[in-house]
Amino acid sequence: QSVLTQPPSVSAAPGQKVTISCSGSSSNIGNNYVSWYQQLPGTAPKLVIYDNNKRPSGIPDRFSGSKSGTSATLGITGLQTGDEADYYCGAWDGGLSVVVFGGGTKLTVL
Amino acid sequence: QVQLQESGPGLVKPSETLSLTCAVSGYSISSGYYWDWVRQPPGKGLEWIASMFHSGSTYYNPALKSRVTISVDTSKNQLSLKLSSVTAADTAVYYCARHALSIVGNTTCFDHWGQGTLVTVSS
């Protein structure tokens, strides 16, 4: 059981937009920044969003992040088949002094 | 260009100690950042194991703390993980990662990852 809650799967057609939610509590998302990771099949996770809404160098602006209260959202526009991956949210939990991750969301581009 | 590379035995017997090393290139561990281990059981999600700063500050997953030893060797620019008394539940891909952690700034993210190494616990 993950501390952060994500939907197991989402899907959308190529070119469309999809959002992935991540729900937590005041001890993690509510008072700390959220990061998001893309894990393509058979590869290591890759940082796509940090500090709620910032993109690392090389990440296209099709990827966006937002946070409201104890929930965060990853958005991907102009979906491509290459975006098919598992996506994980992560945050620091100040109450436990630990890193917490969501259980992951599998994105299917139909 | 920061690169991390895990190495270690791919097969460990139950009750023994799992030992992994992560060689870091392109960045000096002693220059900053936390350095972490994260694992992923087959078909499952990410599980954070532990963080260590080069000065010795550490954080551990409470569920694993009693069995985990994390260390950094600044002379070799590498980090290590030891997990004792392993069981089949410890079978996973183990990743090392550079961790931008600021408790004061309330921020955490893993900006560089190794490719991961699969460790199977079996007799």
Summarize the structure.
The complex is a heterodimer of chains A (110) and B (123). With 110 residues, chain A is mainly beta. Chain A has strands spanning 9-12, 18-23, 34-39, 46-49, 63-68, 71-76, 85-93, 98-101, 105-109.
Can you give keywords for this protein?
heterodimer, A: 110 residues, mainly beta, three-stranded antiparallel β-sheet, 9 strands, B: 123 residues, seven-stranded mixed β-sheet, four-stranded antiparallel β-sheet, globular
Outline the fold blueprint.
The complex is a heterodimer of chains A (about 110) and B (about 120).
Chain A: E1 9-12, E2 18-23, E3 34-39, E4 46-49, E5 63-68, E6 71-76, E7 85-93, E8 98-101, E9 105-109
Chain B: E1 3-7, E2 11-12, E3 18-25, E4 34-40, E5 47-53, E6 58-60, E7 68-73, E8 78-83, E9 92-102, E10 107-113, E11 117-121
Category from helices, strands and their pairing of chain B: mainly beta
How many angstroms does the end-to-end distance of chain B come to? Answer: 39 Å
Order of helices and strands of chain A: EEEEEEEEE
* Unreliable spans of chain B: none
Helical fraction of chain B? under 10%
Beta-strand fraction estimate of chain B? over 45%
| Outline of chain B | globular
How does this model look, in words?
The complex is a heterodimer of chains A (110) and B (123). With 110 residues, chain A is mostly beta strands. In chain A, 0% of the residues lie in helices and 45% in strands. Chain A has strands at residues 9-12, 18-23, 34-39, 46-49, 63-68, 71-76, 85-93, 98-101, 105-109. Chain B is mainly beta and 123 residues long. Helices cover 0% and strands 54% of the residues of chain B. Chain B has strands at 3-7, 11-12, 18-25, 34-40, 47-53, 58-60, 68-73, 78-83, 92-102, 107-113, 117-121. In chain B, the strands form two sheets. In chain B, strands 2, 4, 5, 6, 9, 10 and 11 form a seven-stranded mixed beta sheet that branches. Chain A binds chain B through residues 2, 31-33, 35, 37, 43-47, 50-51, 56, 88, 90-92, 94, 96-104, and chain B through 36, 38, 45-48, 51, 59-62, 95, 99-101, 103, 105-111, 113-116.
